[in-house]
Queue: 2 jobs
Job 1
Amino acid sequence: MDTNKHLAIASVPIQEWKTVYDEEQAFKAGTIFPELNKPFFVTATDSDTPNAKLELNREQTMMQQIQQTAFVVDDLRLYLDTHPDDKNALSLYKETLKRKISLMREFALQFYPLAEVCVGVIYKENPDSDCYCWPEGRIPWEGVCS
Amino acid sequence: MWVYEKRLQYPVNITKTCPKTAQLIISQYGGPDGELAASLRYLSQRYTMPDKRVGGLLTDIGTEELAHMEIICAMVYQLTKNLTPEEAKTAGFDAYYIDHTAGIWPQAAAGIPFTAKEFQSKGDAITDLTENLAAEQKARTVYDNLLRVITDPEVRDPLKFLRAREVVHFQRFGEALERTKDSLDAKNFYYTNPEFDKGILS
């Protein structure tokens, strides 16, 4: 598939699967792929640790876990869109997606639902619930400092 | 159809009111290379893409751009939510304040309202994918410029995340372009319009 030899058209090499970051590193880098991590030089020198150390409660810790796991799913989804036959990517996608769903389910039962399917999880667990639970929980854009 | 998840893709926790910073960052909401234009660009182009996998990629990236729009809006909101009238007057936010108070409205840093003229949907797969490569680079440059002038780590952290996504999206659009090229005649990619001249793509 050497399409990079043609004149008068843009060419980008197809990425190949290599070792990927763990969830925490990936979230910090904005990609699971070390070879796509290309930070801006001004940012390379500063520490950029936001608001010192935020004290996270259990809910916030679990939310952070969901964000990290879900982000790996997001980045893998785009990779698979252009590499549908990559077995390594697919296997990591399947495993991570399963973990994301189970975390969201747990979050719904302990705190509040993040999606309508999670409202369904609550009703399945408590069929007699008289709670319209969708509006519950934090407003996403408020942040934990409010 | 879309389904909402009640969380940000990346957290925004800004403690210091700074209308000046808000006025710069708002460009990535409604500016020429902002997340709103990005999302509408990809979600508009996808319908006529000849390769359905490329259409799928446009849906997924267009959807992620909506999540990025939400992150930018959350930043503008948190930077202005405790705004005093005095700050509104003196911190370079006065013109915006007159028209929108502290409401969130899509405009460029220079005050130009959001417009669909910021993006194209040209109905030609090669043209549109090439536009998308440029769009990701333009957005990356805006994030570079923002990171150069903004010092607050609470603001820089989500900006760095969003910048990193532009680089990844560029790679994916490049791969989508290669995929589209694979199904065309390499002797002359421009012999037909693969989106309009149906049945040409193998």
Job 2
Amino acid sequence: MTALSAPARFTARRALLVGAALLALCAALAVLALGLGAVPTPARDVLAALTGDGDALTRQLVLDLRAPRIGVALLCGAMFAASGTIMQGVIRNPLASPDLIGVGAGAGLAATVFLLAWPAAPAGGLPWAALAGAWGGFGLVLLLARERGGALHPVRLALIGVAVASALGAAQQLVLVRAPDGLGSALSFLTGTVYGADVTRLTRVLPWALVLLPGALLLSRTLDVLNLGEDVATALGTRVNPARLLALAVGVALAGAAVTGAGILGFVGLLAPHLARLLVGARHARTLPVSMLLGALLVLAADTLGRALLPPLEVPAGIFTTLVGAPYFLYLLRKSA
Amino acid sequence: MTPTNPERAGPNPATRTPEPLSTHALKLAYGQNVIIPGLDLAVAGGQVTSIIGPNGCGKSTLLRALARLLPSGAGHIELYGQALHALPSREIARRLAILPQGPTAPEGLSVEDLVWFGRHPHQGRFPVRRAEDREAVQWALDQTGMRVFAARPLEALSGGQRQRAWIAMSLAQQTDILLLDEPTTYLDPSHQLEVLHLAQRLNREQGKTVVMVLHDLNQAVRYSDRLIAMSGGAVYAHGPAGDVLTHDLLRDVFGLKAHLLPDPDTGRPHVIPYALTR
């Protein structure tokens, strides 16, 4: 027996340090991104604009044009990451992620159809449509993946999820192609970019984020207990099915709302929770906030990179997250098969 | 140790204290597949009871149902005289702990993290760690000899240590009743003994009612006060550990011919099977 009293790998101190570091990285990257554009703004001027100083033009550039986009990137990244963390915890499947089990694609399709069918809809209506679509896509995947005995093999769920997501995505493309010119391009963000995110999109996502992200944190302990399996969770006094349903409802709503801000940002919901568990362990009171910060950082970094790489071209953030996420997904598939 | 017979204890059933667990015309089934058609059973309080029987006789099914891990098809189960299905799950978890077979934990969880989950039924919506919770966790770690491993991640432990960590979690619930579903399976002989000694000690020192499902007949007879032998979804025999194992039972329930020699320590039968009867 070596190292009888080896120090714990995952301590609260470590989680705090990781969280603080990620928060600092997000802030630094946000300042950098706020200065990035056709008219570059030095960090000093960005900070001045943020605190209400500086000249009017810079303030308008930074606060009105760039800040909403960065806000959307941060919020949607955090929401996808939280959604993925919850789903991996509830389904106990390392391959679960909103974009891989039909939630994102269902939300995207429903949002597209909603906007085309009802262009004059009140602004607050879109997330509700996306939410309905998210449940539709998720329900479809669960229905197809269901097996006798109720056990869900992780790889089976992932394969069916990817197939359903592709089909729903294709349907969405089809609807978009047939859409009138102006409207079609207005909807193109649904394919996964924060390009063109404005105050409207920010205010659409913000209330959902303000309710659901803290709501997810309140579920931490429930998720921890569910993670021990149905029997142990029951033995500890948890009513498993209502608890699962509540957690899934929050997870699906997070992804559905995030889709209306930035479309489907591929693999963020898969990557962020895995990375978070590597950094701070499996307890959700630590995993969830760290995962949210990682998701926010990932999407902001992807978007910033997309803007800086080939100006004035803008590479959608979803492309970078997918470029990083897809190989990792393949690695997980090999490991789980 | 004087064996008691609570199910036949006094003439007037209304005045005696209710048994910790009892079943009344209990039917258990998986879908259409009926495992236990109708069972009346009372578990003796303050005793170690082991349920024995061949594979598929319904012993694990019964244990899981007693801990509300399985819904009952018909009839009902009572916990200290109260209908189990009518009690809030959290309240049950403060009076009855069960360690199911083969539990799994997420990677990176430390022993202490795991044991803290045992306090879940005692904590409110927000997990404030009160002094009594800390004491319960430390006590559970001490009882199982896991304090030195408290900071270790579960995946870094041996099978026996991991089993003890899970038992520690159940102990942290501080319940009067402890159910263990095949707690010795997959453990080497010394770790098996450790778990059995622990169960016995918890009964002797804390007065806990312990109910286990065991496969090893000799371990069951040696470490239990009472045995329940099940066969085909029914109780074949139920009584003091020394009285249950007979040539008839071994033949009818297990299909075995065996020598029964008195255990030099307990005087109870020690089973040496030598032939199959079917």
